[in-house]
Design brief:
six-stranded antiparallel beta barrel, 546 residues, 41% strand, six-stranded mixed beta sheet, Rossmann fold, globular, Immunoglobulin-like, single chain
């Protein structure tokens, strides 16, 4: 009997422990609301979420709600007083609406959970919605073709691809709005081929006009200010920072090369830095390295680097202003990666950065590597350096300091930069709409002034003949002449008018090389390659101005 009583008591105790263990809170986002519910680009949107505690136990500690737009964090709000069982609280933020299709996610008490809950699978709520351009805006700027030049990085911050990253983000936003955006790589190709100076608005406008753009957007990152602090909690040090970024941009009429609009924008973010290293120390190191690099010729900051570390290569140009590119190779001369063209003025210094990845984006193994600089005719200088095995604790990972990488996007600097680009795109949209009438009139005038032949000097490779000749599907009927040069483009998503066979649009993947026309017939021409490259049927061929 006593034994039976003990078993009953033990069972009751186990049930009590079980009930106690499951008597936990359960935080759920029950509602997400936008005001206005159908926002238009440029409007301030009020985003509100309702957090409910569906569990039997109260939440007494503070916790956080994270807001993410299209996968990137835009805000964090705290709920200080907790939430009682079966009660709810609301939290809200404001967001500047950017045109396009968006996915908003709100997450309560995310991954590093402060609250012990009975169910964490229901802590997220998502909403997909569309921000539209107004009908007036679509009518005003929809027909215009836009090209965004690489932004100049005047911040001196030491982060990699800052100017190019801002240009890429701006282009992505414009494409998401449904605007007609031309490839920046094509603009740079024209600039390099025609030896134009990207620091001169007139040269940029000339290249943009040849590309077929109506509007050129050029700009700069004028400041990137960081104020870092550290909070010591026992053995744990939490690094936080305030970041303020300033951008400026101008609208250039490609037909007159005149600036017809100028805008500025700022972006601010604060919170934990998100970096694995001391941010203030990094900024000081990068500033010191930049000063040391420009002593003359082709140089790297150091003779060796750890695996995964960003490698800066600088060239001080003692001769005439020109375009230069950097090629990375192994110690035995095997090609690794091309770092692209940059224009370098006389007695000026320009930096290239290599993230230690090859053309397949794979990390290169430890060893000795050589950087050679090419001026379009010959290699003019080279420098060797070593990648050593092992990972140093003092390494600045290239992925964290390169604008556009997922690792950079998750940092406080990435958040501030995204906020600045968001504000800049809205300001540019307003300026574009204001100046659209001028652009439209000049575009029509320019189209009328161009000869019908010159506007159609674009075709495709129709056949590759056994004797090496390349046949293209345009000829004398559109003005092709013997001896002319055409560049061959690797493309995707080619759109051709089914009736006229006119090429309407395409995406450029690469510039493969050039062909010189040796024979012209009415509707077909034949050419020979001027260098060793592999053309393909369907590649676009585009006339090169002499």
């Amino acid at each position: 009997m006593v034994r039976r009583a003990r078993i009953i008591v033990l069972s009751l105790l186990l049930c009590l422990v079980s009930l106690t263990a499951t008597a936990l809170p359960d935080l759920v986002i029950s509602e997400m609301r936008l005001e206005p519910s159908l926002p238009q680009a440029g409007e301030s949107v009020f985003i509100e979420v309702t957090v409910v505690n569906d569990g039997p136990d109260d939440v007494e500690k503070p916790f956080f709600v994270h807001f993410l737009m299209d996968g990137r964090k835009i805000a964090v709000q705290s709920i200080v007083g907790g939430v009682s069982s079966n009660r709810s609280k609301r939290v809200a933020i404001e967001w500047l609406a950017i045109a396009g299709v968006h996915t908003l996610v709100a997450e309560v008490d995310p991954p590093i959970s402060r609250i012990d809950e009975s169910d964490v699978s229901n802590n997220q709520h998502s909403l997909m919605f569309t921000v539209a351009l107004s009908e007036e805006t679509v009518a005003a700027i929809g027909p215009l073709k836009i090209v965004v030049a690489p932004f100049s990085d005047l911040s001196g911050s030491g982060f990699l691809r800052v100017g190019e990253g801002v240009s890429d983000k701006l282009m992505d936003q414009f494409l998401g709005m449904g605007l007609r955006v031309l490839e920046r790589s094509e603009l740079e190709s024209i600039m390099q081929r025609r030896e134009l100076n990207p620091s001169l608005p007139s040269d940029l406008a000339l290249a943009a006009q040849e590309l077929g753009a109506d509007i050129l957007i050029a700009g700069s990152v004028t400041a990137l200010d960081v104020h870092e602090s550290s909070l010591q909690l026992g053995v744990l040090a939490i690094r936080s920072a305030e970041v303020n970024i300033r951008l400026s941009a101008s609208l250039v009429d490609v037909y007159s090369a005149e600036m017809v609009g100028a805008v500025d924008a700022e972006g601010y973010a604060e919170g934990t830095t998100g970096f694995s290293f001391d941010l203030t120390g990094f900024l000081g190191i990068m500033a010191s390295d930049s000063d040391d690099l420009c002593g003359g010729g082709l140089q790297t900051a150091r003779s060796w680097y750890s695996v995964g570390e960003a490698i800066s290569i600088a060239y001080h140009n003692p001769g005439a202003a020109d375009w230069f590119s950097i090629e990375i190779s192994t110690s035995i001369g095997s090609f690794v990666r091309w770092l692209g063209w940059q224009f370098v003025d006389m007695n000026a210094c320009t930096l290239w950065n290599w993230n230690q990845l090859n053309t397949s984006n794979l990390q290169m193994s430890p060893g000795v590597y050589t950087a050679k600089i090419w001026d379009g005719i010959a290699y003019v200088a080279q420098v060797s350096f070593q990648i050593r095995p092992g990972i140093s604790l003092s390494v600045l990972p290239a992925t964290e300091i390169t604008v556009g990488t997922p690792q950079f996007e998750d940092t406080v600097v990435g958040s501030a930069l995204n906020a600045a680009v968001d504000n800049l795109s809205v300001n540019l949209l307003n300026s574009l709409e204001t100046a659209s009438a001028t652009f439209a009139e000049e575009a029509m005038g320019s189209a009328a002034a161009r000869s019908p032949l010159s506007s159609r000097r674009e075709g495709q490779i129709a056949s590759l003949l056994p004797d090496g000749r390349v046949a293209i599907n345009i000829g004398a009927s559109v003005g092709v002449a013997q001896g002319e040069l055409f560049e061959v483009l690797g493309v995707a998503n080619v759109i051709v008018d089914p009736q006229t066979l006119e090429i309407l649009d395409y995406e450029t993947l690469s510039v493969k090389g050039q062909i010189v026309i040796t024979e012209v017939r009415d509707r077909v021409s034949y050419g020979m390659r001027t260098s060793d490259f592999q053309p393909a049927i369907g590649d676009i061929v585009r006339w090169l101005a002499p």
